[in-house]
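Structure (tokenized):
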């Protein structure tokens, strides 16, 4: 199949799958191993040209599962000239500046996990770095940077583990509830349900930290930009200042 001219992304998938000796069922199982799902019927329609415009997410999934090169993918989509321009340095890859507004979720073997705005921005940096490394042919660059990306994502996940995001009337706030979960063993879902009774617009327009009623208790808070950090129960906070007779 060396030198074979491929026309159409579906034909590229068919050629690569057969070159590996894979059935459609095998390709489906490999895709699942990478944490994604595609049906045999969809793949069959794609290969037969009945689905001619796969989404970007499907293209990326199949690149990963079949180990496709960017060059052959661009050529199969009749966009080889874009790849050639990028190689010559006449063109730069531009991600949308409003990446945080795109609804992105990561499909794991257990669940679909929505990404926060900060995670989306980090993923954007990873994509840019991956493309630049691929186009330059320097695979070691990305390998070296990957460790930093993993650590950065780990820090984000740790920071966001106890954050609850609420939005109302276009106003968005984040509540840091670590003390409620770790000190008082409260469930995050119960906390979120209680927070949904608050006026997010009013809280967004308040710059000072104020006590907030959550789950039949008043909690002291501190305001940090668009985050309200729960400090402790008001009763606990006041204890040091009350004389015991």
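Design, position by position:
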């Amino acid at each position: 199949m060396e030198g074979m001219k491929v026309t159409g992304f579906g034909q590229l998938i068919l050629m690569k799958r057969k070159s590996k000796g894979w059935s459609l069922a095998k390709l489906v199982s490999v895709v699942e191993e990478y944490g994604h799902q595609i049906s045999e019927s969809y793949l069959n329609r794609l290969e037969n040209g009945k689905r001619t415009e796969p989404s970007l997410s499907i293209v990326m999934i199949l690149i990963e599962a079949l180990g496709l090169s960017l060059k052959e993918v661009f050529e199969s989509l009749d966009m080889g000239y874009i790849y050639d321009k990028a190689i010559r340095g006449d063109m730069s890859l531009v991600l949308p500046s409003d990446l945080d507004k795109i609804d992105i979720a990561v499909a794991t073997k257990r669940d679909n996990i929505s990404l926060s705005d900060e995670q989306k921005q980090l993923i954007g940096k990873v994509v840019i770095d991956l493309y630049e490394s691929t186009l330059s042919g320097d695979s070691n660059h990305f390998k070296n940077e990957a460790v930093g990306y993993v650590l950065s994502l780990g820090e984000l996940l740790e920071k966001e583990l106890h954050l609850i995001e609420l939005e109302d009337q276009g106003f968005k706030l984040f509540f840091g509830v670590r003390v409620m979960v770790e000190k008082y063993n409260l469930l995050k879902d119960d906390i979120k349900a209680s927070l949904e009774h608050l006026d997010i617009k009013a809280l967004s327009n308040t710059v000072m930290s104020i006590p907030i009623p959550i789950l039949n208790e008043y909690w002291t808070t501190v305001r940090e930009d668009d985050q309200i950090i729960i400090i402790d129960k008001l009763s606990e906070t006041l204890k040091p200042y009350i004389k015991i007779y």
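Reviewer-requested clarification: The longest helix spans residues 139-160. Residues 1-6 have pLDDT under 50 and may be disordered.
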